[in-house]
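Ticket #351: bound-state structure for Q9C.
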Amino acid sequence: MRFVASEHHRGHDPATEVDAGEVVGIYECVARGDSIWTALDAAPGYESVPVVEHGLDPIRAVHDADLVRFLSTAWEELAAVMAQRGQDRRQVIADLFPNPRYRDGMGEWREPDNAVARLGYWSFETATPMLAGTWSAARAAVDVALTATDLVLAGDRAAYGLCRPPGHHAASAMFGGYCYLNNAAIAADAAATTTGSRVAVLDVDYHHGNGTQQIFYGRSDVLYASVHADPAFAFPAFSGFADETGTGRGLGATVNVPLPHDCDEARYLDGLEVALETIERFAPDLLVLSLGVDTYELDPIAGLGLTTESFAKLGRRLAADGRPTVILQEGGYHLDHLARNVLAVLDGFGG
Ligand code: Q9C
Ligand code: ZN
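RESOLUTION: The complex was predicted; output attached.
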């Protein structure tokens, strides 16, 4: 299997996040990308392909132009505000968010002038810091996803994109959940619009991919199917319910399979079958797999009872469906077992 990765991920090197008001070490760290890359280089049967720059057009096809403009200049503006305050900061985390009820009865929202307030205006939670290298890493992750997609569109059975930062929590006009640009959505949209093909996104990350769901919620050409921890107890809490099935022309092209806290491999694989049945009925030409391995039983912030052998089964099960597949990295936070679990999926697929 051929794979794509970018050195630019290292420029996005956050130190901390805020969890329930507590400052903790960042889980979405540089070592995640490096450990997977090192393992791919050492494993037999994997060949690295250079990243091809695809520019901003495929990003703007999915994301609001104002979000893209904000992300591209955010660090410069934040650094200026911090300098004015006499603070030398390597990262900034938003702490003010636009609750939809704030302006009840008071008319339209305005984007704030202050860069720190704007960080919250465009985001939704406190685990997604902005740094000097964030924008180029986020852009490079999109290029990684699009380059992997090109390989599959040109005939590779499957390709792996080592996207970091991840993408599936980024919506058309909002970032967060460690995600800035929605790599999988941009790849799926580019494939669907440039080739006129039907694309299914299967999201197996522990967390519901609210961003990918939102981007495709009204569309019938891209199916979004997700198997994830029930939002009743898991992040991102506001989406991923089984009764969210799309809207308008997209009705029926969104599928959510929420799983319980005490999930194990057998229950997980049953849930996966539900998602795969809907994909089968949709009959896509291309599958984009949002591959989070934070379903691992030992994941420090997540976990749905899966073992490394479960990930091999997942890879074999997806390969059995025989679809051209773009595999893109999302979450997975057990640093010591991360690469092993990703490789289990890829090897299982026939990597
Ligand atoms: N500030 C992915 O796995 N958790 N993202 C804490 C509270 C954020 C997970 C949020 C988890 C994000 C790609
Ligand atoms: Zn996740």
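RESOLUTION NOTES: Residues 205-207, 292, 294, 302, 330-331 surround zinc ion (ligand 2) (CB under 6 Å).
TICKET STATUS: resolved
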